[in-house]
């Protein structure tokens, strides 16, 4: 039981498995492959932004990146526009989206550190700027991704969607970063007590800066892939990832208070969030009932996972 | 040996109390009783079980075994509410007031005094009265926010609240390391107040690692060791040496003053008129809260970067206010000790060499005798003094040529103190520089040179044989020594 309780991510996986089972059973097993494929595809995008948000939230109370949706839109828009204008295909698009991420991270942390604006306000303000830039760049024209890129982002390898492979590789890298490197250790230290971390020699500003950049890079990559996957960037494409990115961190068992995070829970929670909506759709419930049930079930999972908090 | 529980009804008596936390047997069959009018000193090493016994007495912990008799009645259920009902109050070693509330609000949170209109002013007035009685000239407003007070002022407020004469009148006040954050003058005032309180029929349990205080204040001394009562004797006829040997360590004479290290070239670091040369032990003294901690923090922040880790650390910091400046509460002891040295244990790519980290932990666990089942247990499961040892290991284990210590001996037992003093001397002989703020004059007198702070500035500099208790106190109050 202690080993069990030491893994807060287990609850999101249990919930995910239960919802998957309930959906598949309802359709008599016919939908198993289709539901799984769709869940892996869409969860992949939540996982990418969720990992970034997790690192930011781990930095401690008040740290959150609300500019993720706008960053996704901006990266998706600019990268496809660049490919369209300059050619060069996937690599140019990837390069442009990562540059967008770098710029976003620098802008966010500059406001937070230099102007001492709380992260929640700073990232909310910058998100208006990023979103407006995307609108200005896009001018209502939807640029299609090149065929090779569109094909890659919708294809499968070994029966698993390519985007899910990318998310999996990023997840493993994030786990290694958090659990095995000095950077991860320092993020966890800052999240528990920023002053104590500084007085223990942790370069607090540098680590926070890198974390906000990391989060923006992951959001940009997710935006680039999502735009390629869905046949072009749309101005509202990132909207649902605002709450999703935070929800998967919390449902995944990371502490909202910071200093205590886990990576596997992000996958369980992302799959759960998608499957939950799918299940309620499969049952043919009305939109209102669906939303109410979504809320209640999420609360139930968080309560179940939060019952075993550590002593102090 | 007198058995007080038989002579007069005890305020509280426990018999055969036992309490285990996992593998740690914090209490292992303890008999303890205290009568009205008695002041009992409670001493022992870090982790001997003192804080656990205190928590049993105040109802915060239910012992696994044992009986409790409070105010003449055997108690089947004994908790914080019952303890307060019979007039048992407690001042904790880890300060326990809410930093986001004012002094008056904290009083009310503890359910002292009455509610209704104007409760803030009434609470502020009662706590001010209590402060005036114990610490004349304290200068603390009842409406001041706790978070804005220095650690010494917070400690004074907590003590004043414990002695408040509202609600169930205090019959037993437990003081756990009450003087560790107070300077000498405030410590004297507290001792005088404890005397008055006991003369008036109150009882006090006084826990301290400063044995001279315990001997001065108490009628009886209980020595704890490994979760048991090792000795229970009237104070008359006891001396510090006897107490230390009862605790299981050997008393050492104060070592002779070190030879002054030769100064060469420019100082290693400066802060205003404060300067330190390689191999020096520099003391920061003065009344608590006169800018010593701020000066040390400023020195550390100036010597280290918030943006990147330099190849060689220039300084390391030992926190005194553990909860605010030191401990990472979610982590193990090991991770708490390696925070500062971690860059030295990192391979290319930023990977932490976990074998090297574990070896560092094992080495310092032995060097500082950290009492714990293992280095991977949570640091918050340790007693305050053992947590402090982990913070010492964090700084002493680094390569930094300067170690800044912000009153680091709070809650540390005498055996460990002697070990740390010896280590500091050895390392200073080896060229390391120490800046050491202490509220204990004995410690300041170990330093080669002492800067006495008053109102945020260095008021006096004492060197060599000028470093005496009289000179320090004189300078603290503006006695004119320059």
TrEMBL record, chain A:
Keyword terms, alphabetized: Cell membrane, Membrane, Transmembrane, Transmembrane helix
GO cellular component, one term: plasma membrane
InterPro entries found in the cross-reference section: ABC_transp_permease (IPR001851)
CDD domains membership: TM_PBP1_transp_AraH_like
Annotated compartments: Cell membrane
Membrane topology term: Multi-pass membrane protein
Pfam families, sorted: BPD_transp_2 (PF02653)
Protein name, UniProt field: Ribose transport system permease protein
Cleaved signal peptide residues: none
Keyword Transmembrane listed: yes
Any one GO molecular function term: transmembrane transporter activity
The keyword Transmembrane is assigned to this record: yes
Transmembrane segments: 42-64, 85-111, 117-137, 158-178, 209-229, 241-259, 265-284, 291-309
From TrEMBL, chain B:
Keyword flag Transport: yes
SMART domains xref list: AAA
Keywords: ATP-binding, Nucleotide-binding, Repeat, Sugar transport, Transport
Pfam short name (any one): ABC_tran
InterPro entries attached to this UniProt entry: AAA+_ATPase, ABC_carbohydrate_import_ATPase, ABC_transporter-like_ATP-bd, ABC_transporter-like_CS, P-loop_NTPase
Molecular-function GO terms, alphabetical: ATP binding; ATP hydrolysis activity
Domain ABC transporter stretches: 12-251, 251-480
Protein name: Ribose transport system ATP-binding protein
Originating organism: Amaricoccus macauensis
Lineage: Bacteria, Pseudomonadati, Pseudomonadota, Alphaproteobacteria, Rhodobacterales
């Amino acid at each position: 039981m202690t080993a069990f309780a030491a893994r807060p991510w287990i609850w999101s996986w249990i919930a995910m498995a239960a919802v998957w089972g309930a959906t598949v059973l309802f359709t008599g097993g016919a939908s198993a492959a289709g539901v799984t494929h769709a869940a892996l595809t869409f969860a992949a995008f939540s996982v990418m932004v969720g990992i970034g948000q997790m690192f930011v939230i781990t930095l401690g109370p008040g740290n959150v990146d609300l500019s993720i949706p706008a960053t996704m839109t901006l990266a998706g828009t600019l990268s496809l526009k660049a490919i369209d204008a300059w050619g060069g295909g996937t690599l140019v698009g990837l390069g442009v989206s990562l540059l967008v991420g770098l710029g976003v991270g620098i802008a966010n942390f500059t406001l937070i550190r230099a102007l001492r604006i709380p992260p929640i306000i700073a990232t909310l303000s910058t998100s208006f700027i990023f979103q407006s830039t995307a609108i200005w760049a896009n001018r209502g024209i939807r640029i299609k991704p090149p065929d090779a890129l569109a094909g890659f982002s919708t294809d499968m390898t070994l029966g698993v969607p390519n985007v899910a492979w990318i998310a999996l590789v990023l997840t493993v890298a994030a786990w290694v970063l958090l659990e095995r490197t000095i950077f991860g250790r320092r993020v966890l230290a800052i999240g528990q007590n920023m002053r104590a971390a500084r007085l223990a020699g942790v370069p607090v500003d540098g680590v926070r800066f890198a974390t906000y950049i990391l989060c923006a890079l992951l959001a940009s990559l997710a935006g680039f892939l999502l735009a390629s996957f869905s046949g072009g960037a749309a101005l509202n494409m990132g909207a649902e990832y605002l709450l999703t990115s935070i929800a998967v961190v919390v449902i995944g068992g990371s502490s909202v208070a910071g200093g205590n995070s886990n990576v596997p829970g992000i996958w369980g929670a992302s799959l759960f969030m998608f499957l939950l909506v799918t299940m309620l759709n499969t049952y043919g419930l009305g939109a209102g009932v669906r939303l109410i049930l979504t809320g209640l079930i999420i609360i139930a999972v968080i309560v179940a996972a939060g019952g075993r908090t550590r002593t102090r | 040996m007198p058995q007080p529980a038989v002579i007069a009804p005890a305020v509280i008596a426990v018999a055969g109390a036992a309490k285990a936390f996992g593998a740690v047997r914090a209490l292992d069959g303890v008999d303890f009783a205290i009568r009205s009018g008695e002041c009992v000193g409670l001493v022992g090493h870090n982790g001997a079980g003192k804080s656990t016994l205190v928590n049993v007495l105040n109802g915060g912990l239910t012992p696994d075994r044992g009986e409790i008799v409070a105010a003449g009645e055997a108690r089947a259920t004994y908790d914080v509410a019952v303890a307060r009902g019979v007039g048992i109050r407690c001042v904790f070693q880890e300060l326990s007031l809410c930093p986001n509330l004012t002094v008056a609000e904290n009083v009310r949170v503890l359910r002292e005094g009455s509610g209704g209109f104007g409760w803030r002013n009434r609470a502020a007035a009662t706590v001010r009265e209590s402060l005036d009685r114990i610490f004349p000239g304290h200068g603390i407003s009842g409406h001041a926010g706790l978070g804005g007070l220095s650690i010494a002022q917070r400690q004074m407020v907590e003590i004043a609240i414990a002695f408040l004469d509202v609600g169930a009148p205090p019959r037993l006040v437990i003081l756990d390391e009450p003087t560790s954050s107070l300077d000498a003058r405030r410590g004297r005032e507290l001792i005088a107040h404890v005397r008055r309180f006991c003369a008036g029929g109150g009882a006090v349990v006084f826990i301290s690692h400063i044995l001279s205080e315990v001997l001065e204040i108490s009628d009886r001394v209980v020595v704890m060791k490994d979760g048991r009562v090792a000795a229970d004797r009237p104070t008359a006829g006891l001396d510090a040496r006897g107490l230390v040997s009862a605790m299981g360590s050997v008393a050492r004479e104060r070592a002779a003053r070190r030879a002054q290290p030769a100064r060469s070239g420019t100082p290693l670091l400066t802060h205003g008129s404060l300067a330190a040369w390689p191999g020096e032990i520099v003391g920061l003294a003065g009344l608590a809260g006169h800018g010593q901690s701020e000066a040390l923090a400023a020195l550390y922040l100036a010597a280290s970067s918030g943006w990147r880790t330099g190849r060689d650390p220039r300084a390391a910091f030992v926190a005194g206010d553990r909860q605010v400046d030191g401990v990472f509460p979610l982590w193990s002891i090991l991770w708490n000790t390696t925070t500062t040295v971690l860059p030295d244990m990192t391979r290319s790519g930023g990977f932490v060499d976990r074998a090297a980290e574990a070896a560092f932990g094992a080495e310092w666990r032995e060097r500082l005798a950290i009492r714990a089942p293992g280095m991977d247990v949570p640091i918050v499961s340790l007693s305050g003094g053992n947590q402090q040892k982990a913070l010492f290991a964090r700084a002493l284990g680094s390569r930094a040529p300067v170690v800044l210590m912000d009153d680091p001996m709070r809650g540390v037992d005498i055996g460990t103190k002697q070990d740390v003093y010896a280590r500091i001397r050895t390392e200073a002989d080896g060229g390391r520089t120490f800046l050491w703020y202490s509220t204990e004059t004995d410690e300041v007198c170990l330093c080669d040179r002492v800067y006495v702070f008053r109102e945020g500035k260095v008021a006096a500099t004492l060197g060599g044989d000028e470093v005496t208790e009289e000179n320090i106190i004189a300078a603290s109050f503006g006695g004119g020594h320059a």
